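Q: My labmate handed me this sequence with no annotations at all. I'd like to see what the chain might look like in three dimensions before we decide whether it's worth expressing. Could you predict it?
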Amino acid sequence: MIIIISIVVVLLLAAGAASYFLFFKKGDDKEHKKEKEPVNIKEITALTYLSESEITTNLSTTNSFIVVKFGFVFESEDAKAEFEARVGEMEGITIATLNSLNKDQLQGGEGNKIVTETIKEKLNSELTHGKIEKVFTPEFKVQ
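A: Here is what I predict for the chain of 143 residues:
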């Protein structure tokens, strides 16, 4: 009698564990896979613009300046084309934006974040055929 009860308990535990892995863990894997869709490098490259030269400009703080090079990832080819057609204007807006910042704002890890978010916001307000999804800085020096 004890052997039969022991076998039933073991079978119930095994069935519970199997049910957990079949129903709950499988759903988590599907959700996790949705979040990690493969990146199409050709699409990303087609939507990316990397400035050819660095920008060196004064900051609002006396005797301080920034040297920065920008890259942009756009949501569409139309947005990228508009940006490229207006690149001189976009650089002017970028320089004016950088001139309004001070050295203390740009120190440390938060400085780069402030610059990229501010530039993205300013340039997106000017674009009419799409938006910038991401701004990155392959070069970033504050003096």
